[in-house]
Design a protein that fits this description.
By secondary structure, the chain is α/β, with parallel strands linked by helices. About 45% of the residues lie in helices and about 10% in strands. Helix 2 runs antiparallel to helix 7, helix 9 (about 275-290) runs antiparallel to helix 10 and helix 14 packs antiparallel against helix 15 (about 425-440).
């Protein structure tokens, strides 16, 4: 195989060689959680489907012994897949397991001197969705000064995970070409299947919102397992230090799962690609003018970044609708999606306060909103702010046949329904923000960017402070 890693070859195909924001350093147990979440999606969505929409699964396990830990699981995955290719160094009876005997499973005996044995890759390619985890283990030099960990689950990998269709497709093509060194006929077959999958038309995009919940659940479980293992193998001081490091890594990745889902929504919404960034900035500014406590401001900012996460699996037509027209069908859809988003966020206990903010953002000042019909100051102040700002920001962007409004015009529309939908005092405060922006004293993000730094202390004080970098 090519001496360059799969990650390096993928990076070379990207503009400015810039990898996506999910690129970072991951503990092995974090990667197990991510891979299991993606694999579960295969088991839950492809098992009874037509052969034509079942996925092609490409995976490397470094060594046969690591594959054998998952081989029974891959027996079920293979039955739910169109084709599975598994690469590993042929040790520990790699080729003897029943999974390798299935007609649609191909085993690649990796050469022990092939650089790819340092990689752990999972690529899932289907007409209805595409997903991957690509990783390369740190070298002995990169593990310095502590050296390579003795405990397997503490091993670290450079890597990324993504649902981006073009990125995953490119990684799959690179993987297939890497197999040519071992089996030219297999590579040709995979390339033909690759082309068939990419040209399949008709099937609707799969709902991947459940993957987020599974990722968070698995990460939570792996965190608990890590603490339990450390209790058995380390003295108290070592336990505290290791548990803290792992907790920070896992919690950061759980939060990243949601942030990247929200970022994906913004990327799909070509009419409003900076919605989350602008709503977060505006909401925080409004909260500052109201002199809200620092903790509440941090939660409000995070709610602004995540309030559209419920749209992650919404059909593309949603992003051409004009939800400001408030017909009953459109209102029902957006209310349902807000509720779905809050449910997704509830999967991470640390995000419960943020989930509550998102849940009630469509409550109305006069009590006619949802989900609970709260009235006036019964509605949490952060939810009132988020609901107002989200609507205001949407009106500043053109969508469908509706032109974009200037800041003042958008505020005027909010003022028209002040007292019925929105808190009149908040609308007045928003007017002050608009005047600051019109005077050039405040700027909003005007283009999509990588995820901003977010701290889990944004949620509360029961979780160690960690940045969003993995």
């Amino acid at each position: 195989m090519n001496p360059e890693s799969t990650l390096a070859r993928l990076q070379a195909t990207l503009p400015d060689n810039k990898l996506p924001s999910s690129y970072g350093v991951y503990f092995k147990n974090t990667l197990v959680a991510l891979c299991h979440a993606l694999e579960d999606h295969i088991l839950q969505t492809s098992g009874g489907g037509e052969l034509e929409i079942k996925p092609l699964v490409l995976v490397t396990f470094q060594q046969g012994k690591w594959y054998l830990q998952e081989a029974d699981r891959y027996f079920d995955i293979a039955k739910a897949s169109r084709r599975v290719v598994i690469g590993a160094v042929a040790d520990s009876g790699f080729a003897n397991h029943k999974t390798g005997q299935l007609e649609n499973v191909s085993l690649i005996n990796l050469d022990p001197i092939d650089p790819i044995i340092q990689e752990w890759n999972l690529i899932i390619l289907a007409p209805t969705y595409k997903a991957m985890v690509l990783c390369r283990e740190l070298s002995h030099q990169e593990y310095q000064p502590q050296g390579k960990p003795e405990i397997d689950i503490e091993r670290k990998f450079y890597g990324l995970w993504s649902f981006d269709q073009s990125l995953v497709s490119e990684a799959a093509k690179i993987f297939i070409e890497q197999t040519r060194h071992y089996d030219k006929a297999l590579a040709d077959q995979l390339l033909q299947l690759y082309g068939e999958i990419l040209t399949t038309v008709g099937p609707p995009l799969a709902d991947i919102s459940g993957v987020v919940s599974r990722i968070v659940t698995y990460l939570q479980s792996s965190q608990q397992q890590m603490v339990a293992i450390n209790r058995q193998t380390r003295d108290l001081w070592e336990l505290e230090g290791q548990a803290l490091r792992v907790s920070r890594n896992l919690n950061a990745n759980k939060l990243q799962a949601f942030l990247r889902m929200a970022q994906r929504v913004d990327e799909r919404d070509t009419a409003n690609p900076t919605a989350s960034l602008q709503v977060a900035a505006l909401s925080e500014t409004l909260g500052q003018l109201l002199d809200l406590p620092a903790l509440q401001l941090r939660r409000l900012r995070l709610a602004g970044l995540l309030f559209r996460v419920g749209l992650v699996s919404a059909p593309n037509e949603v992003f051409t609708q004009t939800p400001d027209r408030f017909d009953q069908q459109t209102l029902t859809f957006w209310r349902d999606r807000s509720f779905i988003g809050s449910q997704l966020l509830q999967a991470m206990p640390e995000l419960s306060p943020v989930a509550e903010i998102v849940k009630h953002k469509l409550e109305h000042w006069d009590g006619s909103g949802r989900p609970d019909g709260l009235r006036g100051e019964e509605i949490p102040i952060a939810s009132r702010i988020l609901g107002l700002v989200a609507c205001f920001q949407e009106w500043t962007q053109g969508r469908g046949d509706r032109p974009a409004l200037g800041l003042t015009a958008a505020w005027e529309k909010c003022r028209e329904i002040s007292g019925s939908r929105f808190d009149p005092a908040l609308v007045d405060t928003l007017g002050n923000v608009v005047r600051l922006a019109e005077m050039g004293l405040m700027e909003l993000p005007t283009r999509p960017s990588q995820l901003p730094n977010v701290w889990l202390e944004d949620v509360g004080d029961r979780t160690p402070s960690v940045t969003s970098a993995s």
